[in-house]
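User: Can you help me understand a structure? I only have the sequence.
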Amino acid sequence: MKLSVKWIVFLLVLQPSTVWADGVNFPSDTWGISFGNSKQFTGLRFNIADKDVEQVTGLNMTLGVPLEGRHYTKPAGEFNGLNIGLLGPLGKRFNGITLGPLLMGAGDFNGIMIAGGGMTADDHLRGLAAGLVLVDAQFGAIDGVALAGFGVRADRLRGISIGLVGNPIHEVHGLVLGAFNINRSVTGIQIGLFNSADQLNGIQIGLVNHAVNNSVPFQYLPVFNAHFSF
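Assistant: Let's start by predicting it. Here is the structure, written out as tokens:
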């Protein structure tokens, strides 16, 4: 059965509660083109707000965030492919390319993630993550490259972090570049105006460099500092 454009528009506009809750899908309920909150789908999917989603593979475009009354409800689900959210892609896991003009959040991000404002991950960011303001994995890890106009925050980094203002990362394995780099453990390189590490195994390049595990008088040095443990 063929669906005309007028009939599709009628369903989407005049009956939003039914259509967007279950989805209008063709030619199949599980693949093809979907308009609405399809729980499992492969293909092109367009929705107002994702809620209780299980798995979507393909191109997913979402306008807003799920709400219950006035409270935000974080959707569960896995999105694979190209994901675009107007207010912000939100889900359990994103694999592929994820774009958000404002914000985005998930348990795990894998691939290329670009946010106009910032992004936060509860567990892991793997790949290339870029946010105009913030890239945040405060209680998780970043494996790859993280770029932020303000700062990059994480419990652990393996790779490169560039936060123009600062990089408050507990454990660094790689390179951090920013105005203020204050880290507990660094195995690699810190570059900035002020660099500080409780445990440094590498080098610091900056205006003031602080390595707590260096002996006095080499804890604070201008321009360059280093400590190597073998």
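Now, to help you interpret it: The helical segments are 5-14, 16-22. The first strand starts at residue 24 and ends at 27. Let me know which part you'd like to focus on.
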